Amino acid sequence: MRSSSVFLLATLAVTFLSAPAQDTPPAQKVIGVSELIPMGGNAEHPLLPIGSTAPDFALKGTDDKVHTLAEFKDAKVLVVMFESIHCPVSENYEGRMRGLYDSYRNKGVAFVAINPNNPKAVRLDELGYTDLTDSPADMKIRVHDRQIPWPYLYDGETQAIAQKFGAVATPHVFIFDADRKLRYEGRIDDNQNEKLVKVHDAHDAIEALLAGGTVATPHRPAFGCSTKWLSKSGDVEKEMERIKAEPVALNAASAADLAALRANAGNKVTVIHFWSTGTPNGAKDFAELETTFRMYRGRSYDFVTVDTDAAANTPKATEFLNSQHASSRNLQLSSADMKTVQAAFGDTWRPNEEFTAVLAPGGKLVYAHKGPIDILDVRHAVLTNFTDNPHFPGQSEYWATKAR
């Protein structure tokens, strides 16, 4: 029988605020971040008022089961959390949410998470701090990777439940009493940096309700990533139009050029992918790496493709790059230079075999793989070696501790 702790998380996407201690955090302009979240809801998606009855729901979770509000009828307190997979603020709060769950799951508190985002409404340049999208399939990966124990439900198809709650950001928490009346709504605590937290809003609200009291401050503005409503899907289409219009070029490179790449001077994490038109099933890996480039290029990141075809195949290689809209840096290596380059990377591979490397700033080789890749392994190697963005403290630790 399920524990009486349920935590509702819902995925919203990419418009971020830092998390200072005051009630209304100031908006911060951040790379890879778009529209700012409306702190008090808006006319189109108004916040559920304090004292309202919990909206009913019937949503499929990552366990492929449909979960309803009635499932948690015996809980003394119900915590509903709107959360997203791709949002760095949501990622940084996963550990604190687990702390709340572990503290209260045996005390009559139910936790459930809802993802309100539709991946069709999230641009690639809004995925700069994640390995995954907000799709139901990717939700399952995150739940497995992080061993999330509460039900994690998907509302992205219609976003009907997110609209009933008026969820404005990820994370955004709604806490209901035993009669399922809303008694607290807003942020989890007052600072993204856990070491600087002074006010534990969600914790204090739960404690008050379990003690039979009232919540002293029933509303604190939520901060995080804005909900990605389906109405934003047009922005995704416009982004792809811009990508398709970007120039594509293939330039000759020498062993010396590759040696400079291998040294990776500067502060960028760099992915280098060796490929050829004769690589079996190489188009899939190439496309995933180009997608990753579009996700991370707003950060200190570089992606270089190296074609190992003979010069006679240059037209075919160029045609392939154009088909992939490969606006990354694309080089072509002479076969005479292959052994020198392989020596620099400390590995050997055939001209028609894929080889993918991830270099940390300063040239440390943190990932090297011959043949077909697992794109999540590549992304994890990249994310682990990014320098922490001060707007999202905790990201370095989050990815460094990722067990997969």
From TrEMBL:
Q: What are the entry keywords?
A: Signal
Q: Return the Gene3D superfamilies for the record.
A: Glutaredoxin
**Domain Thioredoxin residue range list:** 48-211
* CDD domains in the record: PRX_like1 (cd02969)
Named from the GO MF annotations, one term is: oxidoreductase activity
Which residues are the signal sequence here? Answer: 1-21
Signal as a keyword? yes
UniProt protein name = Peroxiredoxin
Q: What is the lineage of its organism?
A: Bacteria, Pseudomonadati, Acidobacteriota, Terriglobia, Terriglobales
